[in-house]
Structures are given as structure tokens and as C-alpha cells.
Amino acid sequence: MTKKSNSALPESAQANPEPVNINAQTIPAPTAAAPVTAVKPKNNTGFKVTVVALLFLAIITSAASLSLSIINYLSDNPSVTYNYSNGNDGNSLNFTEGSIAEVASRVAPGVISIITETRTTGWFGQTETSTSAGTGMIVSSDGYILTNKHVIDGARSIKVILDDGTTYDDVTIVGTDPLNDVAFLKITGAKDLPTVTLGDSKTISAGQPVIAIGNALGQYQNSITSGIISGTNRSITAYSSDLMSSENLKDMIQTDAAINAGNSGGPLVNAAGEVIGINTATSEDADGIGFAIPISSVKGMLKNIIENNSVARAYIGVSYVEITPEVVATYDLPVSAGAYLISNQGSAIIADGPAAKAGLKDKDIITKINGFTLGKNGSVSTIIGEYLPGDTVQLTILRDGEEHTINVTLGSYRTRE
Questions:
Q1: Cα–Cα distance between 309 and 387 in angstroms, integer?
Q2: pLDDT tens-digit readout, 285-307
Q3: CA–CA separation, 336 vs 240, rounded Å?
Q4: Given the DSSP bridges, would you call strands 339-340 and 321-322 parallel, antiparallel or unpaired?
Q5: How far apart, in whole angstroms, are the C-alpha atoms of residue 262 and residue 203?
Q6: How big is the chain by its Cα radius of gyration, in Å?
Q7: Model confidence, pTM
Q8: Rounded to an integer, what distance in angstroms lies between the CA atom of residue 68 and that of residue 159?
Q9: What are phi and psi of 24, to 5 degrees?
């Protein structure tokens, strides 16, 4: 399947989406009022559900030209808090009486509202400015922010509002993930800001309790809802706001915690108060179906930005299909989970890429990365997303029925030529 990228995805990234999901299905865009974006989850069970990307709310007004300088901000010594810095895994905890309020009060100061302005030209040449609202989270005390790419897509100015009402107008876009709906922002000159703690999405499980925090409807800042993780490793197809293009999002966390328009970019939080996902999409045709991007998938880029002032994303240089019962039956595979290296665009191994240099071959099956089991702990893209270009990871693969381990030195993401 050829993926239609949304307008925020660089054209150069469209030729080689890693991972490639050749089972993803495209459906006609449903009728929906702008600015929502229709999406559809991967359908392997026979029923159809249409979902809607949580695009910010927009108000059209007449305005003059605005400008936003997009730069790569250079950082000195910011601090990012990860849960595993103290060896604990907060995904094993449950909420107790009163603990939701306590966790929410700890996390909320690091959750911010994002206000953007975009300018368009109307049918008769008039200038129109759209003011939109979304959510983000502060991940370093000097003002680095995580949010969804579609929240800031096309923005000519960005303003953030903290939980205490403090407003910052000097906000820049540091970079975006070429493979995911994720953007990295920076508040210029900020210091001593409250931050969220990033957890480990590789160890989450269905039934685990969570809360979602966000700028609901663009009006109700840091609204808090609760629920559980309903499922993991979901695939959806997200359409652009004009319903004319789409983007495949993989390995999504499904939750029944209420997620509303304006919540895009906000945190999905476990009972320890750790962020395990970035709220991104919700169901249009059903209640209690929302989706979040696993937080582990962004840690490598975030670390690279902060430590190396680089927005490069690590990759191994393969196309693959996630193994499902349908894929097992189609290709007569010996395992029920993993990544099958196959492509409908020639070889699944990108020439001169990291995987090619390490000796991977078409029809290899990757079952583990650094000991983490694919499917159970995440997809290839999510697990690799924790690392930096230049890091070496160990792949466990099956080739011709035999298990092998191969070390791969990760490269910087590039498209297939």
C-alpha cells in the first residue's frame, strides 16, 4: 500500500515509510466537520470503526500576515526525567482511593495548552487566520515540549499557556518525527519549568489503569479523565484535516479514557504519574475508543535533540509487515509475532543501509530487539525509537527456521532512493 502522508510529513519521507504496513487499509473519508481528521484502525476482525484524529479547534478570523521562525534550538544542559532512572516500573501500580487526584496534581503543572495561528488565502483573495488549540507536555526544565505534529502543522505563531496561567509567546519548532505524528518545540529562554516524567511504554498491558490530561475542546485546560488501556499494538490510518490525504500510525495504545478534541499532544499517564503515551486520536463512531502514541518511540529523538542538537531519527533500514494470524496464514510463517522483512516495492532491505551492512536478508523474521519481544513490547519502529543513530542493537531473527542474533549499528533515517 502507498501511504498518503499528511501535510506535515516531508515529501522525502513518503517513499520509504519505516515500518511499512502492507496490511493497512484505506477507506473513503467519512463526512465530518472541519477541522477533524478521519482515521480508521486496522481491521482484522471483520467490523469497521471510523475514528477521528484529535485536531485542535479552529476559529477563522481576518488578520494580517504572521511569521514564525523555525530553528534548531541549541541547548546547554536541560534535564529530562525518565522513570527507569530509579529502576522502578510504574506500569505495575494501580490507582487507589484518592490517588487519581494526587497523580493528576503532580502531572498537571507540566501539561500546557498550545495556541497556534495559521494564515490561509480565501477564494476571493482575502486573508484568513485560523486560531487553534491543542495540548503539549514540558519534558525539560528549560522548556522542551512534546506534542503532536498535527497540532502545530502550518503554524505561523505558537503560544503556550502553563497550568498556572503563565504564557510564553516565543516558541519555536525544533523538529518533527518523519515516521510519526510527533513534534518537538522549545520555549526560548525558559528555565526552572515544571516537567512531566516519561515512563516505559514497552511494559504496559491491557487492563492497566490510566488517566488522560488535556486542553479539552480548546477551552477546558488540563481536563482529567480516567480509564484503562483497552489494547496495544493497534494500527490506524489518520487522514489530514481536509480528508484528502492520510498517514499510517502503528503500534498505538488504545484506551477508554475520554479523549476530546483539543487533547491532541497531551499525556496518557499511568498510576505512578509517568507519561506512557501521547494522546492522538479518538473514535468518531463509537464511545470509549481513543489512541495514544507510545512514549518509548520518541525517547531517542528527544535525547538526540537535547544532547546533540540533532533531530535525526534512528532506523535500521528495512521494510516489514507485522506478523498477525492473517500474515502467518498467507506466508506460512513459523511464529505468531514479529516483523517479516518483505516489501511490495522490491527488496525489503534498503541498499547500503544499516540492515544491509549487518547482513539482514529478505524474508528474515525479527522476533526481538535487545531482548524485547516484538508485539508484546512494541513494534520495530517504537523500540528502535528509543535509540540514537550510531547506537548498536542486537536483533534476534529467524532465517530458514533457525534462530540467529545480528548486531546492527543504527543509522539516521533516510528515504529509499
A1: 15
A2: 777 889 999 999 999 999 999 99
A3: 33
A4: antiparallel
A5: 28
A6: 20
A7: 0.81
A8: 11
A9: -65, 145
